Amino acid sequence: MGKFLFLSFTDVVETGVGIADLIETLEEVFRASKRGEVVSSKKISTRLADREDAFLNSMPAYLQYKGVAGIKWVAGFPEAVRLGQPYITGSVILNDCNTGQPSAFMDATWITRERTAAISVLGVKYLKKAECPNLSIIGCGELGRAHVFSSLSFFPEIKTVYCYDIFPASAEKLAADVTEAGGVEAIVCPDHREAMRMGDIIYTCTTPKEPFLSYNDVKEGATAVSIEGKQVWLSEDYARFDKLCVDEWDGIKEGAHMKNLVSGGFVSDRQISAGLEEIVNGKAVRSDDKERILMATRGMGAEDVAIAHLIYEKARKLGLGAELTLF
Questions:
Q1: How many domains is the chain partitioned into structurally?
Q2: Is residue 116 in some structural domain?
Q3: Among the listed ranges 55-64, 75-84, 93-102, 119-128, which one has the minimum average pLDDT value?
Q4: Considering the entire predicted model, what is its pTM?
Q5: Are 103 and 94 in contact (CB under 8 A)?
Q6: Sign of CA dihedral 55, 60, 66, 67
Q7: CA distance to 18, 45, 110, 308, per residue, from 86 (Å)
Q8: What is the secondary structure of 244-289 as a DSSP string?
Q9: Helix (H) or strand (E) holding 97
């Protein structure tokens, strides 16, 4: 009784799950959601008033189609970076739906980072124009790196990566690693506007103090994805994009910055062209290769639980992790 599988960060990575696996798993989530077979409760975010920009999020979900429930408990602490630790860390608990007992406890640092990138890649898969040779990344930390390398693996048409970060060394390191991987040119941009103007695909992975990105710097036909928990685009620019998409509207509009944009009249329900559930299930969004499209994401517990279950199954087959007893 009470036995569960413990998987460390290393165990999770050693399962060998890649971007193609993640995209397939996420598409399955959205198809099952359309059938009414997913319960993804609203994210509960706890802010630490005495620690600037620190948060703890609770993200539970039940995947009826898999017969698995779970919860991700994720933390974001800027101070950790200054101590040489990741900004985002967390854990996932999976529960046996026959007994309710935990079946797995695993590190969610990799899951959170790679799922975030995979959701962006999934959105771009359906929203991008026909050919996208240029990728721009604004913010070259761990999340930015995950977005770049996931995209390079999934979109072979990418030939050039434009990198910008407020810390030039981070952009230079990412560019060097992209170059070393081979087959793609990487260019460090001293200004975010320069990087933005080149991208057919644009990812913004930043922690802005205030909005600083402008629609004026988005090239014709570009698809931009914003993952920030804080507002990064100028308020008036959300209405200037030809299409505005989200991962899941009911959840994202409860987030602090989008809630403020809605209450301020800058974004409305009718302005949202589609969520990922609609997009994955066949709703066409892009009308032509000239449209500028923005997708904003916040993340859903169902996505993390589905990926954690995939990792759990692969770990079992590979004999990874340690079996522990709770009681």
A1: 2
A2: no
A3: 75-84
A4: 0.93
A5: yes
A6: positive
A7: 21, 19, 10, 20
A8: EEES-HHHHTTSHHHHHHHHTTSS-GGGEEEEHHHHHTT-----ST
A9: none
